[in-house]
Design brief:
It catalyses: 1-(5-phospho-beta-D-ribosyl)-ATP + H2O = 1-(5-phospho-beta-D-ribosyl)-5'-AMP + diphosphate + H(+). This protein has helices at residues 17-31, 37-41, 48-59, 65-82, 92-101, 114-124, 146-155, 169-178, 196-207, 212-225, 231-238, 240-260, 263-284, 288-292, and strands at 4-7, 14-15, 87-88, 106-109, 131-133, 162-166, 181-184. By secondary structure, the chain is α/β, with parallel strands linked by helices. It has a 5-stranded parallel β-sheet with strand order 5-4-1-6-7, with helices on both faces. Strands 2-3 form a two-stranded antiparallel sheet. α1 (17-31) packs parallel to α3 (48-59), α8 (169-178) packs parallel to α10 (212-225) and α10 crosses α13. It starts with a strand and ends with a helix.
């Protein structure tokens, strides 16, 4: 059951991404070399620290705590000048009000620092949100799931009872890793005309479909809680050697299905291979993010 809606801020609630892009390009020029459009794409949705490292590496400049502090202050001064010009995403205020009328709480989760985030949230209407998690409130920003996990905890709901609106790959990875259902707003034509019933329908559809991150979160939970009769727990107790044999067995089944069986049968075998691979990941403490960095 849908119990809360969690919102990314930049590029979702307000159209501030072009302003962040402008400031990031300006910062890279000050550092010594303007970012390429391709390199800039790698900074979208991430932390300021990551963006600064990209700029420094591109310019061949060295990292230091003093450099970080200097450009952190520069960036936030510049964005304080630009944020008041950010456009509120059309249709968002009406949807927020509709959710409030049906007592579905909303919460903001952003990598942006508190002193900038509060102004942007106020522009949308701080009264429309039960609270917010900003970049200052977590040890690890998106793509780490800490922010979304903390938001659900503050609201007193489970992560899998939350629907998230996100526009960046890093944000979507964070939300999925937390166990939330995620809507990619870049694929949503508009918020105008979207109602609470639409959100409930999207949630119900998405909550029945597993993805790589949500399956991993589910397996980690099982490993920690050790429910009686769990096949996952029994498999983990047998150790890595037995799990490795199972992964090899399932890989063979995928090969045979690809050669001789239908598309649906192949898909089923692939799902089993993914499941056992993830059980192995849990056993060894390997996370999806550990895997993604090599893709």
């Amino acid at each position: 059951m849908l119990k809360a809606v969690l919102w990314d801020m930049d590029g979702t609630l307000i159209q501030s991404e072009p302003l962040w892009a402008q400031a990031t390009f300006e910062m890279s020029e000050i550092i010594g070399r303007r970012l390429t459009p391709e390199l800039h794409l790698t900074t979208i949705g991430g932390t300021f620290t990551h963006a600064l490292k990209v700029c420094l590496d591109h310019a061949g400049a060295e990292w230091s705590a003093e450099t970080h502090e200097h450009y952190f202050e520069w960036m936030h001064t510049r964005m304080a000048q630009l944020i008041p010009h950010a456009e509120i995403t059309p249709g968002v205020p009406a949807l927020l009000d509709a959710l409030a009328s049906e007592q579905v709480p909303c919460f903001v989760v952003t990598n942006t620092a508190r002193r900038l985030a509060d102004g942007a949230i106020a522009r949308v209407g701080a009264h429309r949100f039960a609270g917010s998690i900003t970049g200052d409130d977590v040890a690890r920003g998106k793509p780490d799931p800490e922010g979304y996990t903390a938001a659900a905890l503050q609201l007193g709901v489970r992560s899998d009872e939350c629907l998230v609106f996100e526009d960046s790959a890093a944000g979507m990875r964070a939300a999925r890793a937390a166990g939330c259902c995620v809507i990619d707003v870049t694929k949503l034509p508009t918020f105008e005309g979207v109602g609470v019933s639409d959100l409930r329908q999207w949630y119900e559809t998405m909550s029945t479909v597993k993805n790589f991150d949500s399956l991993y979160s589910e397996l980690v939970d099982r490993a920690a809680s050790r429910p009686e009769g769990s096949g996952t727990v029994a498999a983990l107790d047998k150790g890595v050697h037995a799990l490795g044999k199972k992964v090899i067995e399932e890989a063979g089944e995928v090969w045979l299905a690809a050669e001789y069986q239908s598309k649906e049968e192949l898909a089923e075998e692939i799902s089993q291979l993914l499941y056992w691979t993830q059980v192995m990941m849990v056993a060894r403490g390997v996370t999806p993010d550990d895997v993604y960095k090599y893709l």
